[in-house]
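This section describes the prediction task in plain terms. A model, or a person checking by hand, is given the sequence of a single protein chain and must write out its three-dimensional structure as a string of C-alpha cells. No templates, partner chains or ligands are provided. The sample shown here is typical of the held-out split.
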Amino acid sequence: MSIGFPGLILILLVALVIFGPSKLPEIGKAFGSSLKEFKKAVQGINDDTTK
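The expected answer:
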C-alpha cells in the first residue's frame, strides 16, 4: 500500500498544525537520525546472516 503524494502532503499539514512550525525541524532531524540508525541495524543483521 502506497501513501502517495496527496497523502504525504496531508500528513505534513497535520504535523504542522499539531506541532507548530518551530518544532518541525527538530522532529525531522530526530526522524532522520532514527531512520539512519535503523538502516545501519538492518545492514548489520544482513551482514551477520550472510557470513
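For orientation: The chain has a mean pLDDT of 85.
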